[in-house]
Write a structure and sequence with these properties.
The protein has 187 residues and is mainly β. 0% of the residues lie in helices and 56% in strands. A 4-stranded antiparallel sheet has the order 1-2-3-4, with no helix packed on it. A 4-stranded antiparallel sheet has the order 5-6-7-8, with no helix packed on it. A hairpin with a 4-residue loop joins strand 11 and strand 12.
Length: 187
């Protein structure tokens, strides 16, 4: 049972939870003990052994001991999945591996994480999917694109621009990893 109250507390991931103390974020363990001191301006939960943290206006990654393993160099950063993490540089998104090497250069307006070997990417306002080599495998054509799970991802196509969109102008469905649209008529 946790006995302390925190200004901010998140769910546990990989045995640690983000807490905010004195305006800084750190991590507690399952025994409500400080595992990683609250020294970060922002932080994410642990995934694949690493967590994104913001120090001095830039994001890097720490391991579960709190050691900085990927230096803070990014405007924004997300969690690792399928061995890659999305990072933002100069307003564009790309992907790094767990060693901090840039694997897919920042070139996308927005991205999702990799799941089942594919990641959603937004190019010129439309969403499509790339593989881990950075190849477009499903052309950008969707208004929204979810993550893949068991070979399918949820998608949405809308007839109107986002600012004028209503639910009546949009159709929901699924796309397979081969690009086949499934589950709805007239998508």
């Amino acid at each position: 049972v946790l006995t302390k109250l925190y200004k901010l507390a998140y769910n546990f991931s990989e045995g640690l939870a983000i807490v905010e103390i004195g305006g800084k974020r750190g991590y507690i363990d399952l025994f409500d003990e400080i595992a990683i001191e609250p020294i970060f301006d922002d932080s994410d939960g642990f995934s694949q052994g690493l967590a994104a943290v913001r120090i001095g206006g830039r994001y890097g990654y720490i391991d579960r001991s709190g050691k900085l393993v990927i230096k803070p160099a990014y405007e924004n950063a997300r969690w690792f999945s399928d061995g890659f993490a999305p990072v933002e540089l100069e307003g564009r998104w790309g992907f790094i591996d767990r060693d901090g090497r840039m694997r897919i250069e920042p070139q996308y307006e927005e991205v999702g994480n990799f799941y089942d070997g594919l990641a959603a990417v937004r190019i010129k306002g439309a969403w499509g999917y790339i593989d881990k080599a950075g190849r477009v495998v499903i052309q950008p054509q969707f208004s929204r694109a979810g993550r893949f799970n068991l070979g399918l991802a949820s998608i949405e196509r809308c007839k109107e621009p986002e600012s004028a969109r209503s639910s009546k102008s949009c159709r929901l469905g699924y796309v397979s990893k081969s690009g086949k649209i499934i589950g709805t008529q007239n998508l």
